[in-house]
């Protein structure tokens, strides 16, 4: 179906996805393989769409957060390797092991879950061991690594394919903390070997040395969004990214209202002059955050229109100005050209990761060139 059939929709540029991937691929050269991170519905871009866009690219495989995401990719016919980075329900593991989905071992409980599921599956599980070098989420501590690796290697139901960690702060101007984490990781590796060793995300891949790792987990940069201003400033000369996502809707109603009229719940906005206001049929239930109230803008007919009043569950009001020539059916851009995810994130006092990943999955994603 075309966009005309939808109340609100997200356009995802496949050429931008390919461009961004190509930028990183050329930068890494033969130093590292790339594993696109397509968790959280590919950061809001549609996991299936992005996976299928990249299936013919030279990638190692895909990274997801949860077992259910791996299941979804398998149902879509994805045959590239899949690594589940974060969490699972242990009753779902055996079918995933049968399909060679990779799992993360981060503590003794995870080893037990994986071994039990592998017995049920009737084949060893492919496992990546995670070392907690300072992010302090999941992973085994550096002082426990040697003993933990011995437990993995002694299991006939586990094949260690990878060793990895994750940076807590590779997006800042000052990389001292990231370099310290990297040193801990390298020291923890010692004489351990695995086919895949990985730590870098988009930011770290650009600003920190790749060896001795040989795989990069490419997340936010794949979608044309810079991890941070510091990453953008320190990017190699000629390295550019193209935002792949545009979120759009259509004006539902447009009308002129007089000066001194309050708009929306709690009457948080009062017009200062007669103006034309437009009602957009999206709200916080769709992922257009309530923090946009009286702070964000949308684009209508090439003009920035401020959000006025409280964003409600299903409606958002915007001020189109005294001479606003707006009619029902006119296209409004919530995120895209003229109102980027970065600008929107700043007005919400958050990060663009949240802005794009929280767009309701029920909203149609349309692939565009």
Q: Which strand order spans the largest sheet, edge to edge or round the barrel?
A: 11-14-17-16-15-18-10-1-19
What is the assigned CATH homologous superfamily of the largest domain?
A: Alanine racemase
Query: Number of folding domains?
Result: 2
The CATH top-level class label of the largest domain: Alpha Beta
Helical content, roughly?
Answer: 25-40%
Structural class assignment: alpha/beta
CATH topology assignment of the largest domain:
TIM Barrel
Number of E strands: 19
Low-confidence stretches: none
The radius of gyration computed from the alpha-carbon positions, rounded to a whole number of angstroms, is: 23 Å
Supply the CATH architecture of the largest domain.
Alpha-Beta Barrel
Work out the helix count: 12
Q: What is the straight-line distance between the termini?
A: 16 Å
Biggest sheet overview: 9 strands, mixed
Provide the descriptors you would attach to this structure in a database record.
single chain, 369 residues, alpha/beta, TIM Barrel, Lyase, Ornithine Decarboxylase, Chain A, domain 1, 4-stranded parallel sheet, 12 helices, elongated
Summarize the structure.
With 369 residues, this protein is α/β, with parallel strands linked by helices. It is built from twelve helices and 19 strands.
Protein topology:
Layout: E1 8-13, H1 14-28, E2 33-36, H2 39-43, H3 47-54, E3 62-66, H4 67-75, E4 82-87, H5 93-98, E5 103-105, H6 108-121, E6 125-130, H7 145-153, E7 158-164, H8 176-189, E8 196-198, H9 202-207, E9 215-218, H10 229-233, E10 245-250, E11 253-257, E12 262-263, E13 269-270, E14 275-280, E15 297-300, E16 303-308, E17 316-319, E18 331-335, H11 341-348, H12 352-357, E19 365-368
Parallel strand pairs: 1-19, 2-9, 3-4, 5-6, 6-7, 7-8
Antiparallel strand pairs: 1-10, 10-18, 11-14, 12-13, 14-17, 15-16, 15-18, 16-17
């Amino acid at each position: 179906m075309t966009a005309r059939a939808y109340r609100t929709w997200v356009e995802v540029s496949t050429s931008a996805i390919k461009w961004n991937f190509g930028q990183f691929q050329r930068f890494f050269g033969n130093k590292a393989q790339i594993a696109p991170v397509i968790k959280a519905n590919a950061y809001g871009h549609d996991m299936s769409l992005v996976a299928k866009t990249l299936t013919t690219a030279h990638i190692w495989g895909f990274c997801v957060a949860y077992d259910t995401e791996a299941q979804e990719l398998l149902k879509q016919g994805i045959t590239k390797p899949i690594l589940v980075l974060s969490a699972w329900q242990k009753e779902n593991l055996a079918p995933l092991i049968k399909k060679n989905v990779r799992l993360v071992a981060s503590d003794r409980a995870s080893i037990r879950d994986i071994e039990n599921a592998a017995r049920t599956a009737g084949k060893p599980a492919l496992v990546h061991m995670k070392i907690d070098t300072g992010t302090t989420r999941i992973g085994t501590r550096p002082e426990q690594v040697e003993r933990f690796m011995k437990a993995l290697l002694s299991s006939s139901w586990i094949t260690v394919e990878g060793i990895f960690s994750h940076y807590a702060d590779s997006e800042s101007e000052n990389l001292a903390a990231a370099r310290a984490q990297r040193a801990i990781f390298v020291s923890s590796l010692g004489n351990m070997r695995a086919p895949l060793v990985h730590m870098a995300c988009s930011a770290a891949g650009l600003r920190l040395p790749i060896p001795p790792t040989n795989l990069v987990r490419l997340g936010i940069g794949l979608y044309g969004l810079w991890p941070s201003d510091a990453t953008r400033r320190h990017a190699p000369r000629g390295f550019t990214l193209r935002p792949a996502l545009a979120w759009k809707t259509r004006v539902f109603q447009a009308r002129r209202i007089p000066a001194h009229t309050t708009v929306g719940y709690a009457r948080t906005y009062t017009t200062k002059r007669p103006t034309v206001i437009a009602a957009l049929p999206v709200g916080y239930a769709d992922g257009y955050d309530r923090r946009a109230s009286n702070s964000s803008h949308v684009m209508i007919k090439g003009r920035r229109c401020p959000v006025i009043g409280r964003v409600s569950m299903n409606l958002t009001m915007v001020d189109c100005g005294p001479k606003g020539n707006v009619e029902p059916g006119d296209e409004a851009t919530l995120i895209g050209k003229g109102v980027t995810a970065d600008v929107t994130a700043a007005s919400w006092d958050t990060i663009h990761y949240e802005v794009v990943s929280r767009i309701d999955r029920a909203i149609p994603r349309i692939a565009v060139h």
